[in-house]
Amino acid sequence: MSSQQLAASVRRATLALRTAAALAAAGAGAIVIDQAAGGGLAQQLRQAYPQRSADQIGMAESSILTYLFTLAVLGIALFTAMAWATRRGRRWVRGAGLAAVVLGTALAVYNFSQPHPLVMTLAGVVPCAAGLVAVALLWTREASAHFTSTRPASA
Fold first, then answer.
1. CB 105 within 8 A of CB 75
2. Ramachandran class of 140: left when φ > 0, alpha when ψ lies in -120 to 50, beta otherwise
3. What does DSSP assign to residue 6?
4. What is the DSSP string of 51-83?
5. Residue 13 contacts by C-beta under 8 Å, 6 or more apart in sequence?
6. pTM of the entire predicted model
7. How many angstroms separate the CA atoms of 125 and 123, rounded?
8. pLDDT tens-place string over residues 59-100
C-alpha cells in the first residue's frame, strides 16, 4: 500500500515511530558521549555510594551501562518493528505499542530515582514521548479503519 493511500494519522504514527527509533539511537549516542566526556555515571555513583570501592563502582557502572544500552537497542528494534507493522495494517501493533510505551515510560521514570546523570535519564524519556504520540495516533478513529479493513488476520 503506498503512503498516498494511508490515512494521515497512520502516516503520522509511522513517522512518530521512526522518530522514536531514531531518538532511542540518539539516546545511546548521548550515553556514549557523556561517558567519553568525563564518565559522569562513575562520578554520580561515587557521590551516591561513597563507601563503595572502585571495583564495586566500576561493576555498577558496567551493569548500568549494559542496562541502558539494552533498553536503547530494544527501543530501536521495537519502534522500527511497530512502524513496519503499522504501515502493513497489523492489528496487534496498537495493543503491543500501548503496552511497550507504558513499560518503557515506567522504566524511564524509574531511572529518575537512580543515580544516573540527567542526560542519561532524559535520553530514555524522549523516545517514550515520541512513542506515546505514535500510540495516540494509532488509536484515532481514522487509524482504526486502517487496522480493521479487509486484511487477513494472519497476514
1. no
2. beta
3. S
4. TS-HHHHHHHHHHHHHHHHHHHHHHHHHHHHHH
5. 86, 134, 135, 137, 138, 143
6. 0.84
7. 6
8. 998 999 999 899 999 999 999 999 999 999 898 999 999 998
Among 40, 31, 34, 35, which residue's Cα sits nearest to residue 73? 31
List the grid coordinates of 74: 530494544
Instruction: Give the number of residues written for the chain.
Output: 155
Helix (H, G, I), strand (E, B) or coil at 101: helix
Nearest to residue 72, comparing CAs of 116, 38, 23? 23
Angle of helix 92-111 relative to helix 54-87, nearest 10 degrees, comes to 160
> And the C-alpha cell for 24?
532511542
